[in-house]
Amino acid sequence: MEVKKKISSSNTPGFFSKEMIITKKSLNENQLKFTYQKQLISDLDYKHKEWSKSIDSKF
């Protein structure tokens, strides 16, 4: 997480914290990581279901 600047006045809106501002680039990178991880979990779940079907069909 990148810190751009400290917020000095109390009337400046904060995002997640009143002590730092998160850059748009950092938010985008975190969103991409989250999306990638979510896809990996989805793929793993699908593979597990397929594997389970193939195991069931052998017995």
Classify the helix fraction into a percent range: 55-70%
Strand content: under 5%
Structural class of the helices, strands and pairings? mainly alpha
What is the makeup of the main sheet? none
Mean pLDDT: 77
What is the first-to-last residue Cα distance?
A: 51 Å
Number of strands: 0
Low-pLDDT parts are none
Series of H and E elements? H
Query: Helical stretch count?
Result: 1
Large-scale geometry: rod-shaped
Measured on Cα atoms, how large is the radius of gyration? 21 Å
Written account of the structure:
This protein is rod-shaped. It is built from 1 helix and no strands. It is mostly helical and 59 residues long. It starts with 23 loop residues before the first helix and ends with a helix. It has one helix at 24-58.
Key features of this structure:
single chain; 59 residues; mainly alpha; rod-shaped
Helices and strands, with pairings:
Blueprint: H1 24-58
Quick summary:
With 59 residues, this protein is mainly alpha-helical. It is 59% helix and 0% strand.
